[in-house]
Amino acid sequence: MTAQSVLLVEDNAGDEALTLRALKKHGIVNTVDVTRDGAEALEYLFCTGKYALRNSEPPPSVVLLDINLPKMSGLEVLLHIRADQRTKLLPVVLLTSSDEERDSLDGYRNGANSYVRKPVEFNEFAAAVQRVGLYWLVLNRNPPQMQIAATAA
Amino acid sequence: MIAERPWQAAASHIGALADAQSYARAMLNILEDAGTEAERRNDTQRAFLNILDDADDERGRLADTQRAVLNVLDDAAAEADRLADTQRAVLNILDDAAAEADRLADTQRAVLNILDDAAAEADRLADTQRAVLNILDDVGLEKANAERAVVALQHANAEVETANRELEAFSYSVAHDLRAPLRSIDGFSQALIEDYDDKLDEGGRTYLRFVREGALHMAGLINDLLGLARISRAELKATPIDLAAIAQATIKLLRRAQPERTVELIAPATMPAFGDRRLLAVVLENLIGNAWKFTGKTERPRIELGQMSQDGRTVNFVRDNGAGFDMAYSDKLFAVFQRLHSVGEFEGLGIGLATVQRVILRHGGQIWAEGEVDLGATFYFTLSEAP
Question: Which residue, among A120, A121, A124, A130, would best test binding to B if mutated, counting the most B CBs under 10 Å from its CB?
Fold first, then answer.
């Protein structure tokens, strides 16, 4: 069984560092790849551009996707992920500062599997990241199509 | 007498003859006369017969006449009956006509009155018409102004729409962008405390705690501001609701959060109102939450809710026997970020009552407060009645 990996799409370096710290601190040692904007995230997932050589590697177990990204918003990235056969069933967790109902609704409409608000208070934030990591990397079972998509890609 | 004397006889004879002749003549005459008379008699007879004939005819005619007269008399009798009937009928009609005449007179008077009124009404109509024409003239003059006003209103509406869009964009930006730096400030302060504990002395750790407190306070303000903005643009869905039920649910949450406190709640079984359930829950959460908070240093704390009628409208109130406030500052109660107590005395960000006021105003209601330092506060609010 190949190691489960995480794709974190986050443009804020502070949030990135705090997320990685929270995961590590709670013993989640899976590989976490980070892309800094939506376009880069799609290159990573579809193995194009600077990620063309990623072809042989399996897709991530889960994408932690921030909504507020430069160039292409997280919601647009999500639409692209759902529109492609290879990533249609890929688990995507929207991880965002916003508690706007509109964002949450748009997120689920665009096919998010989960919507998690990042608390400002560090301990709450760390606890949220830990639970998300444990749930999607340990508890949750991904659809078998993921393997098919991986070979198709 | 012939045999007595010859001469005498002759004479007698002659005389007799003469006499006879005379007689004969006489007789002839008589006969003639008689013939004539007979003729006359015949004539007369004929005439008489004729007369009789005529009389017969006449009698027939007379009979006819008599019958006719009798018929006429019969007819006359029937006619007399009919006349009597007619007369009675006419008398009845006249009676009726008299009554009718009275009624007609009444009607006529009524009609005359109506005509008088109509004349007066016509005058008034003429006045009205003149007034309307004047108004139309004015309207003609006003039309240009009105059109200018409409254009101005459209501009104003466009500006409001732009302002609302900007407010929404601002809220969105605040929601996303202002929180991330605060998370960094708080997160890395905590990371320093955790990871570099051996390199920090007590003073350094205290400063880092202040940094964290500041960041979290600002995060609270952002949350409340976003809540206020959300309430300002939330769609209002007004339905009949029970404020007492919402109050009971609110107090239940407060008691669960602070089970060590004993606060008495006095509220009627129901408080019917008409409004948006979610937004009015925010109102009661704030008002009851304040009452809960400001009775924190009160012996036997009490929160009382109720409704009363004032000037034909229902006034809802939330009363407490807590810290109260100085009425001199009552105008600052509902302003954003205005606080009448220091954070050291009572926690708070100063946005709760501004939010409450926003909700009440959006419901077409009013809110005001009465208070006295150390004796408590009462918040009153009205809502527009159900349509």
Answer: A120
* Residue of chain A nearest B175, judged by CA positions: A98
pLDDT digits (tens, 9 = 90+) for B214-236: 898 888 888 888 888 888 778 88
Tell me which of A60 and B102 has the higher pLDDT. A60
Looking at the predicted structure, is the pLDDT value of residue B200 above 70?
Answer: yes
Q: Considering only CB atoms, which chain A residues are within 8 Å of B227?
A: none
- In this predicted model, what pLDDT tens digit does every residue of B227-267 receive, in sequence order? 888 887 788 899 999 999 999 999 999 999 999 999 999 99
User: Residue B303: which domain range?
Assistant: 238-387
If you write DSSP's letter for every residue of B115-157 in order, what string do you get?
A: HHHHHHHHHHHHHHHHHHHHHHHHHHHHHHHHHHHHHHHHHHH
Residue B245 Cα distances to A40, B161, B290, angstroms: 52, 37, 18
A40 has a pLDDT exceeding 90 = yes
What is the C-alpha separation between B224 and B354, in angstroms, rounded? 10
Alpha helical stretches, state H, chain A: 13-25, 38-46, 74-83, 101-109, 122-134, 145-152
Beta carbons of A98 and B175 less than 8 Å apart: yes
Contact B219 A121 (CB under 8 A): yes
Number of domains in chain B: 1
CATH number at residue B294: 3.30.565.10
Q: pLDDT at position B74, please?
A: 74
Do A18 and B184 make contact, defined as CB atoms within 8 angstroms? yes
B356 is a domain residue? yes
- Whether residue B355 lies inside any domain: the answer is yes
Q: Is the pLDDT of residue B3 over 50?
A: no
CB distance from B179 to chain A under 8 Å? yes
Domain A5-151: CATH superfamily is Response regulator (3.40.50.2300)
Which of B165, B179, B221 has the most A C-beta neighbours within 10 Å, making it the best mutation to test the interface with A?
Answer: B179
Strand duo B238-242 + B272-276: pairing: antiparallel
* Res. B273: pLDDT tops 90: yes
Which chain A residues have a beta carbon less than 8 Å from that of B215? 120
Is the Cβ of B167 closer than 8 Å to some Cβ of chain A? Answer: no
CA distance to partner chain A, nearest, from residue B315 (Å): 33
In a domain, B170, yes or no: no
What is the helix, strand, coil percentage profile of chain A, to 5? Answer: 50, 15, 35
Whether residues B188 and A18 touch (CB distance < 8 A) is answered with yes
Mean pLDDT along residues B198-211: 91
